[in-house]
Amino acid sequence: MQLNLSKILSFNAGYVDTASFLALHGLFAAHVTGNFVTLGAALVSDTHTGAWAKLAALPMFCLMVFATRWIDLKFIKLNKSSYHFLLILMIALFTAAALISVFYLPFPSYDTVAGFSVGMLLVAAMAIQNAMHRIHWVKESPTTVMTGSTTQLMLDLAHLSQGTTPEQKATTQQRLKSLFPTMLCFALGCAVAALIYKFALMYLFIVPVVLAVLSYLKKEHYKKA
Length: 225
What we know:
Distance between the termini: 23 Å
Strand content: under 5%
Order of helices and strands: HHHHHHHH
Radius of gyration: 18 Å
Oligomer: single chain
Shape: globular
């Protein structure tokens, strides 16, 4: 399986979501929808574990998506591309989160400045990845949330099972070839994050920095619009 940008981003999304969920006591950095659920649970629990981070995750995500598009439009006005700048900004955010985490892991179950800061930095970085799918990676399958991809995969498999025209079959198979590796890499990212959390906690948030750098190195390996 050839290593391209989409696979790296999918692995990164699964990794960051699992790492943040485990280390930051239920915070989803890449999956904002999940934070609504965990926030509701935190508000009625005795400890209110990570409630502030979960409450701030959606506004931070929205603000960063807005900022990403704002930056992109500024580059467009200058007849330039925001692509490289946004990837470098992702690297910077992941690096800041890693530097803080090295000194403060494991984070306690209650809200702390360090834990909150790491959570918001991760949410901001993943917001950029989400936004870039709508700006630069429009032909690639989504890499951050697998609900839509799983739904499409099952729809395509059902379609193939009923028999299709050669043209429809070719289109569906091509989409499956794009979706399945993305989903597999996301799942692998989740598994690796869980293992590092268990056996090498201090390195947990260094991995996204490496993945972000690798994404930059593979920045041209995606389907162009």
